[in-house]
Design brief:
It is a single chain. With 198 residues, the protein is mainly β. It has a single domain (5-196), classed as Lipocalin, CATH 2.40.128. Helices cover 0% and strands 78% of the residues. The protein contains no helices and eleven strands. The protein has strands at 5-12, 16-32, 37-39, 42-44, 49-69, 73-92, 99-119, 124-137, 140-153, 159-175, 180-196. It starts with a strand and ends with a strand.
Amino acid sequence: MNVPRVTVGWRFGKSHLLSFGWYDLEREASKTLSRTIKIFDKQYTIGTTVNSFFRTEVYKLGYTWMFHQDRKVSLGLGAGLFVADVGAGISVASQIAVNEGDGNLTAPLPMLGGRLTYRVTPRLSVLATADFFFVSYDQYEGLLADVVVFASHRTFKHVGFGAGLDLQSLGVDIDDDDFLWEIQDRFVGYLVVVTFHF
């Protein structure tokens, strides 16, 4: 699975960073049931093959205060807002109809985070960020944690290349009156990074 991800940062002054981020994650899976389950008013029996999906799309706007900086290390704490599109659903492989819990978090919600940059050499650096998205709105309740660690080499004056890891953990309850979805999701992904410097 390939997941697009974009982050744009603007440094102003010595200690301030304004950033905008977006990513879109959609996962799908199929499973032949080893036990009978019930979703909404429909029962899925043992031996039935079901398809499921989980989708999360996040837009975030954050401010980071770089409270410590020296020749090698920069440390920052941040806060901001995010808007998310979250959905989950299940269907029988042989049927078209989908029983689905789905919706948009259209209100801006709080985000807290931290940032560490370690400059190995003038051109090679390691960046680690951790963002925590808090969900308590309408039919949603939960927490999304997003941790990114990657090394980047500024190969050219304005362009660099790198690689790293993205770790995500999500725990969200979606109560749409008809059904309570309890979504737990964790994954580790590999990053291929291209950086642009202006």
